[in-house]
Amino acid sequence: MTFDAFLHQLPDADPQETGEWLESLDSLVASEGTVRARFVVGKLLERARRLQVPVPSLVSTPYINTIPPEQEPWFPGDEEMERRIRRIVRWNAAVMVTRANHKSEGIGGHLSTYASAASLYEVGFNHFFRGKDDGRPGDQIYYQGHAAPGMYSRAYLEGRISEAQMDNFRQEAGGNGLSSYPHPRLMPDFWEFPTVSMGLGPLNAVYQARFNRYLYNRQIADTSDSRVWCFLGDGECDEPESLGALSLAAREQLDNLIFVVNCNLQRLDGPVRGNGKIIQELEGIFRGAGWNVVKVIWAHEWDDLLSRDVTGVLVDKMNSTTDSEFQKYATETGAYIREHFFGPDPRLRRMVEHLSDDQLRHLRRGGHDYRKLYSA
Q1: CATH class given for the domain over 79-296
Q2: Going along 82-171, which residue ranges are E strands?
Q3: Which of 25, 57, 191, 236 has the highest CB neighbour count under 10 A?
C-alpha cells in the first residue's frame, strides 16, 4: 500500500475556501487541459517551498534537463580547444587499449566507458577540480574504475606517463606497466583511491566527505574548499555498496560531496535494469534519500523543440520512451528517428518538419554537450 504524503489528520478550518481552490483546479483542467494544470500545480509547489511551506518533494521529475536554457551560466572556456583536447585524449585511450590487445590477445580494457564519459571528466579537469596547492588538501576524486584508460591517456599528454608505460597497459610484471584500474598500492604516485571492485568508490566517497567535514569542524584541517567527486556508471549502481550510504550523506548534509553518474543506459549484457528508464529510477532513489539531483539528458540541439512544446507532447514522448528504444535511436538514421520517434504522433511530426534527416540524426544527448555539463 502506498500512502500519499499529503494525507493528514488536521480538520478543514475553512471548507468553503478549500472548495473554491478545488473548483479553480477543476476549471483549469476543463478549460486548459491536464498539461497546463500540471504546470500550474508545479509552480505552486515551487513557490510553497520558497515560502518554507512543508510540502513533500517529488521523487521523479520529467525526462528533461533540470536546468532550463535561460538559467544556464556563461561558459568561460574555449569550447573548440577543449573539444580538440577531448578528442585527442579519447583517441589515445582507445589506441592504448587496442595496442595492448594486439600484444596480448584478450587482455581487455573497457573502451566504451571512458568514450561515453570523456566530456564529464574534461569539464571537471578544465573547470572544477582543485589541485593540492599552497598546502591546501584540494579535491579528492574517485574515478570510475573502468574509465582508467582515459586517465592514463590524459596523463600521457601532460607528460606524467611515458609511451613505454602506455605500451604496458595491464602488463605490470616487468615493473613498468599500468594497472588495470585505480590502484594506489600498485601505482602510489598516480592513484589516490581504489575504486574497483565496483561500488567501493561511491561508498568510500561518502565517508571521505564525512571525514573531511569532521576535520574542518574540529579545526584539525581546513577542508572548507575541498570537494569529493565520485564518478560511477548507471550499471554500477546495482552494486549494494554504490547506494548503501546515500542516507548517511543526506543526514550529515554533506554538500561537499558530488556523485557524477554516467547513464549510458548500457551494461555488459544489455540495457541497465532491463528495459525501463534507469535515469528516472536513480533520480527517485537519490531524491528519496534526500539528495539534490541535476539531470543532463538532452544537448542544446533540443532546446528549440522543447521551447515550442506548449502542449507537452514532446516531453510525454520522452517520458514514455524506454532505454532500449533510445539506444536504438542513437545508432539509427534520421529517417528512422523521424518515422519511429516523431512519426506516430502527427503533432510531433509537424514539430520537426523544418529539420532534415541529418539534423535529426545529430540531436545529441546531454552527456556530450560541454555547455550543458558545465551548467550542471
Answers
A1: alpha beta
A2: 140-142
A3: 236
Kind plus residue range of the DSSP H or E element containing 250? helix 246-251
Among 268, 195, 283, 279, residue whose Cα is nearest residue 232: 195
Degrees (nearest 5) of the Cα angle 334, 335, 340? Answer: 100
**What's the gap between Cα 153 and its chain centre?**
22
How far apart are the C-alpha atoms of 107 and 271, rounded to whole Å? Answer: 24
Listed by start position, the domains of the chain span: 79-296, 300-366
- Side-chain half-sphere CA neighbours of 59 within 13 A: 10
Strand partners, 271: 266
DSSP 3-state assignment of 285? helix
DSSP 3-state percent helix, strand, coil across the chain (nearest 5):
50, 5, 40
Q: β-strand 266-267 against 270-271: which pairing, if any? A: antiparallel
| Predicted structure pTM score | 0.88
Q: Tens place of pLDDT for every residue, the chain, 376 residues?
A: 445 555 566 788 888 998 999 999 999 999 988 888 888 988 898 898 888 887 777 788 899 999 999 999 999 989 999 999 999 999 999 999 999 998 888 888 888 899 999 999 999 999 999 998 777 889 999 999 999 999 999 999 999 999 999 999 998 877 788 999 999 999 999 999 999 988 899 999 999 999 999 999 999 999 999 999 999 999 899 899 999 999 999 999 999 999 999 999 888 777 777 788 999 999 999 999 999 999 999 999 999 999 999 888 999 999 999 999 999 999 999 999 999 999 889 999 999 999 999 999 999 999 999 999 999 9
